[in-house]
Amino acid sequence: MTAIVTDRLFFRYTPDAPWSLANVTLHVAAGEIVLLEGASGSGKSTLLRVLAGLAPAFHGGQAGGSAAVAQLDLRSVEPARIAQQAGFLFQDAETQMVMSEPLRDVAFSLQCHGMAADQILPAARRALGRVRAEHLIGRRIDQLSAGERQRVALAAVLAPEPSVLLLDEPTAQLDDDTACELVGELRRLADVGLAIVIAEHRHDRVGHLTDRVVGLQQGVLCTAVTHPPLPPLAACAESAGSPLLTLDHLAAARGDTTIVREATAVLGAGRIAALLGKNGGGKSTLLRTLAGLEPAAGGTVHLHGRDITTIPPELRVPLVAFVPQDPGRSLLCETVRDEVLLGPRRLGRDLVAADALLDELDLRHLAARNPRDCSVGERERVAIAAALALSPDVLLLDEPTRGMDLPHRAALVKSLRAHAARGGAALVATHDLDLARACAEDRWELVDGCLRVGVLV
Amino acid sequence: MRAPLPPLLCALALIAIALATAQPLIVAAALIGSLALYGAAPPPHRLMLRLALVSGLFIAILNPFVAVEGDHVLFAGPSFFLIDFEITSEEVLYGLVAGARLATAILATSAFLRLADPDRTQALASRIVPRSALTVALAARLAPTLRRDAAGLRETLQLRGLGPANGRRAAIRQASLLIEPLVASSLERGVDISEAMVARGYGGTQLTRLPEMPLRPSEQAGLACGALGLLIAVALIVGVAPFEIYPTAGPIFTPLAIGLAVGTLSTSLVAAAVLRSSR
Amino acid sequence: MSASAMIAVGGLLVLLIGLLVYERGRGGARELGLVAVLIAAATAGRILFAAIPSAQPVTAIAIVTGIALGPRAGAAVGAGAALLSNTFLGQGPWTPWQMLLWGLAGASAGWLAPLLRRNKTVLLVFGGLWGLAFGFGMDLWQLAAFGPALTVTAFVAVHARALPFDVVHALTNVILLALAGIPLIGLLERSARRVRGGWLPLTEDPE
Ligand SMILES: Nc1ncnc2c1ncn2[C@@H]1O[C@H](COP(=O)(O)OP(=O)(O)OP(=O)(O)O)[C@@H](O)[C@H]1O
Ligand SMILES: Nc1ncnc2c1ncn2[C@@H]1O[C@H](COP(=O)(O)OP(=O)(O)OP(=O)(O)O)[C@@H](O)[C@H]1O
Ligand SMILES: [Mg+2]
Ligand SMILES: [Mg+2]
Q1: What is the DSSP string of C93-139?
Q2: Which residue from A108, A293, A334 is facing B200, i.e. has the nearest CB?
Q3: Which residues of B fall within a CB distance of 8 Å from C153?
Q4: Which residue from A318, B123, C46, C160 could staple onto C56, CB 3.0 to 4.6 Å apart?
Q5: What sign results for the dihedral spanned by CA atoms B116, B117, B122, B123?
Q6: B201–A109 CB contact, under 8 Å
Q7: pLDDT tens digits for A399-456?
Q8: Ligand 3 mean position, distance from CA A137 (Å)
Q9: What pTM was estimated for this model as a whole?
Q10: Euclidean distance between CA atoms A62 and A162, whole angstroms
């Protein structure tokens, strides 16, 4: 039985824009897992949105052709009725939260599906258990780490047991163990008859359990292109370089809770360190503390031998530049170009070098677009370009690979290595070991609130 | 925390009693009762207590100077430009009653809000007026989100090297840089949250209501007290113990009035005691 | 029934009717989301301005919503903002009446939308009038429900104290509407348009 049928499906966000989906004819059978691959901005999220009945209903625009999900015609059936059959995981997990506490949020899904009242809470608890999020019950959703939030979002989508699952980058923020477990769980669900479509850039995580890979290129279906994996960093510089950033018994906290108890490490000029650790391990907290957005709870940070522990973030710029974990929501300007040039303009820098970043990070074709109308990966690149444009000494990147396909990741690695070759340093928090190996020499790992420093092999 | 219904009924009963009659004994009983209920609620107590006292006294003191009624003149003064310096004992009495009513309403309302579990209050509301309750719940959930979005935008500004501005001109320029993205992102949040709700299945079928927790014995007792209080209020509204202050105050200490006042006082004291103990 | 009882009970009745109308609204989840975000914004603004008595953006936001999204949404934003902001600033017997008045501000703006949209001066005058009317209504209610008495004298005595605050309120409305009114109406209408997409007819070939 086919769970998803589209026939010459078209979609665009405004009547005068080019089609974001063109002539998409796709069949997905029940029990099948389809992996949707394509460059950032190729229309993966758009296709999933249309299939979930959310576009054009909530995004405006025009759709053409026809499509049916679980035998419901998307042209005529209300989005809410479609949602009863098709669970949709948003690429940005935070946007899909309705309640402020994990258990209540998962319960909301079940309430909306009309589950009997006395079964709701146990079922919600079970769903959270399936994605290792039971320990989050009772916490506030806005105070979870990004990976913890993504687990809650997954639980909310899986709990009502829909017959079709549409997942937009489900493992982007998950650590390896959780991702592995999730993919196994999805396979089991497909084996009992669910149809699952996954848009994902991490082929290495999901590729082996999917039945079929479908490629998408500028809105048109095509056969998936297999890119070679990122090559590991060839020559490892032996000398550590002169110390640029020095952490001495640094403690990092969120509010009153100390998350990182002890971090002692040195980042040398010309070196890149990968910051690893489980979801909720404190990577983001440590980076935010280094950027000055959270006050240090103890210890000191030195930059170029100068104590910067109490210096406010805007005065650490441009020596330190930071790209937070969810930068796409907090872009300021009307156009991508203005956003990238905002910092250099204000610092009175030469704008030519900054403008060249638009080419380096493949943003030229978006230069005049409003960042709000960009895909998640495109926005991530805008934020990274805006940070690089400050030509900082130390670059702090928090999970920069969200929405980034392999070629773009390779481009990012190239930019980072160029930055290091100029004598800069970078600290990159990531769950993607391939990316870490491809760009970093040093391995900083957060285990139980302590930072362990080593060499990446 | 407590179920919302018992304190709601008790508070409503006290307000209704105070508004239903001008009989000073009964109104005084309602005031004392609401004080007790307010005392049973978790602290802090200071702010609303002071507010109730100040607004009550304001009304009480104001009345003799604006009212031109009553037969028993206490102080014969002139009356000029709307202010009337002829003060009658009826005017004083009425002022006290009116002030006590306002104080009762303030104290009883905030007692209810402090005694009832907000989540369960919302659940109760969503059973009666689901759409409105959901709207307010969403707005309440959005408020911190918008604050966080604003913080995120400000952080971006800092990360681009634009710090807290020194000088007013710079401050205004920075604020104007923030306003457009702030408004746009808030509005986007609004559509996002409705999109999220629909994507989660809201509106597709009848929403299941989460089961209400059963009332504990103490809460049942509180509920009974509230019902009794409402009964007294109804009796007063249909005119069981008629009482007029103007033009001449009737006899205050009638057996019926004393009985109703004692009834009001005892039910609210009992309610305060049981609702406190059910913490 | 005395005049004061009639006013107090009548006000509550109007509020109840408004509540029922909103409950039966068919705006779907989209309207709900926009209304919720505007309530949140108005609440945040009211708390932000809490240090200056009467200077708050709730009236202006309710009016703008009424114009851009219609009377039902305007009323919902006004009433919801009163309810929600009072949970931070102090809930009391005044809450229902504030809900009613701000709700009416939003609803009336919705009814007069064609007029208000056309002419900025009319919009500013309308906002100023609502600033004064709000204080007037609050005092009227206070006298009707809790006394001392619903007489002209009492009203003048109570209202004289509040008049400076009402003027501040009216001025805030005028300033807010003058500065942000028109662009905000535009932004709101645009985001309402964002949710107004659709499918092309099957007969039409997208290519
Ligand atoms: N709200 C919008 N308005 C206008 N254009 C948009 C909007 N959202 C996305 N687009 C454009 O539509 C195209 C497809 O975007 P989409 O979000 O589907 O990409 P994607 O494949 O999911 O990318 P990513 O991997 O980065 O998430 C992109 O060119 C993007 O710029
Ligand atoms: N605003 C906050 N207030 C309180 N606690 C928080 C807040 N944000 C995060 N936390 C908690 O701090 C811990 C560390 O969070 P952090 O975001 O640093 O983790 P992370 O290593 O970046 O995880 P992820 O891989 O999921 O991004 C988590 O347990 C998280 O729940
Ligand atoms: Mg996407
Ligand atoms: Mg993180």
Answers
A1: TTHHHHHHHHHHHHHHHHHTHHHHHH-HHHHHHHHHHHHHHHHHHHH
A2: A108
A3: 66-68, 82-84
A4: C46
A5: negative
A6: yes
A7: 998 889 999 999 999 999 999 999 999 999 999 999 999 999 999 999 999 999 988 8
A8: 29
A9: 0.79
A10: 27
